Amino acid sequence: MGIFNKRGALRTSVVVGLTLAAAAVAMAAGWTLRGVTGGDGSNAEADSTERVFNQETAMLAQRTKGDPDAPVTVFEVSDFQCPYCRKFWDETLPAMEREYIATGKIKLVFLNLPLSSIHPNAAAAHEFAMCAAKQDRFWPVHDLLFRYQDAWARIADPAPYFLGLADSVELDRDLLMRCFNNGEVRWLIQQETQINLQSGLRSTPTFVVEEMLIPGFAPIDQWRPVLDSAFARTTRGEP
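Above: the chain sequence. Below: its structure as tokens.
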């Protein structure tokens, strides 16, 4: 199912309450929360929040594609083992990058949501990518994980395969192994996943664009009206 109806308008199911979208965007863009808040308002992780929720430790810059000052931000909530996330990477992202990211209209921010219950190797893949981000190599590893998804998704232990991919993008293997063995990014992936789930983001890929939540894969011809409209609103003050 596409994100538009026959009249070219966004399907009702795509446009969600502003509270949900704003929560997801605030989480991704600012990381201003000081902990994972429980349903009763309590702070569930009070002892670790100082290291968790800020842009530097979240490495948002390392997983942002495009001009940091681009007027429109697209948040991609993704799972490296998700077939439709790979389909977006393969079929939609190249055109989106040429037409909107390279031209400075939008920036794309990748958010972690490994759905381990159905994708058993996803968590390891996300840990590999975020360890690569510590060496400023997130996007090359991102591309390799999707390109070779069929190869590593079915392996009982994908770690040796990931090390081979790491060598191909010239990651420092000692730093990578230290990151893996010490769980240096595991907490970040777990906390980000928890916040995404608490925000109602439960499937991949899901995209947050301004005030809209867009679920699932869509080809670039369905994305263009969304991005053009968002760009017009943010740059020309259109309603």
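The beta strands are 64-65, 72-78, 106-112, 206-209, 212-215.
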